[in-house]
Specification:
10 strands, ten-stranded mixed β-sheet, 33% helix, alpha/beta, Rossmann fold
């Protein structure tokens, strides 16, 4: 219900034509930040990686850039503080995927955003959670982007995904590149694997995160920009 949406005490006004709200997501009210730019074309839900939260500076930078391209964004905590105290929960992919599924159902009940096209952006273990959630949500998710992700941790869900999926990996993140190549081979829908030259796992190098943003924005525009997702285009894996 709309009562779930509350103005943020720090960001209660529209900033640069983007309305920012503090929100409480899902049945247990996980805290998050919802940004809705004027004329939003789609909503991107972020799934952060292990040891991070809705305050992840890298995901916030990506979200800000997507807001500038008329994508709404939702960053929220996947675990409660009590759950975070048990490190096993950080790597519990079914639990994290369930929270993403709850978030999409929550979106669909909100009058301001219900029915808007949805994409998922996952980092590290959050990428596995996004893929697992998409396997269950089917056509409700129009596109997935993984940044430095561990898609291999999605397990058998990889074989059920038809959602257009982009995997982005740093060029010197050797072990993760191989894990992404293996996961890429199992994806059945439209897909692409982008390797950012000279970038390590967290993309701290100059220009690396900007490259991630460019790849992600293009993928979301292609699959969420207007009308139904394009499920006919499939990219070949890089050599």
């Amino acid at each position: 219900m709309v009562s779930h949406l509350r103005d943020s005490p720090r960001q209660s006004r529209a900033v640069d034509a983007c309305e920012m709200r503090a929100v409480y997501v899902g049945p247990i009210g996980l805290p998050g930040t919802l940004a809705i730019p004027s004329g939003a074309r789609a909503l991107i839900v972020f799934a952060h990686g292990s040891g991070s939260s809705r305050l992840s500076p890298r995901n916030r930078a990506v979200a800000d850039a997507l807001n500038g391209q008329t994508f709404a964004t939702l960053l929220f905590d996947l675990l409660t503080p009590e759950e975070e105290a048990d490190r096993a929960n950080v790597f519990d992919i079914p639990l994290l995927a369930g929270r993403l599924i709850d978030a999409v159902h929550w979106i669909d009940r909100e009058p301001l955003i219900g029915g808007i096209p949805v994409g998922l952006f996952g980092a590290s273990t959050g990428a596995a959670a996004a893929l697992t959630a998409a396997a269950q949500l089917g056509d409700r998710v129009g596109a997935i982007v993984s940044r430095g992700g561990r898609p291999d941790m999605a397990g058998d869900a990889l074989d059920r995904i038809r959602t257009p999926t982009l995997l982005i990996v740093g060029g010197i993140d050797s072990d993760v590149i191989e894990l992404n190549r293996q996961a890429f081979a199992r994806l059945k829908g439209p897909k692409a694997l982008e390797i950012v030259p000279g970038a390590s796992h967290l993309f701290p190098e100059p220009g690396a995160l900007e490259a991630v943003i460019g790849h992600a924005a293009r993928w979301f525009r292609q699959n969420l920009g207007s009308g139904p997702p394009d499920r006919t285009r499939a990219a070949n894996p890089p050599a």
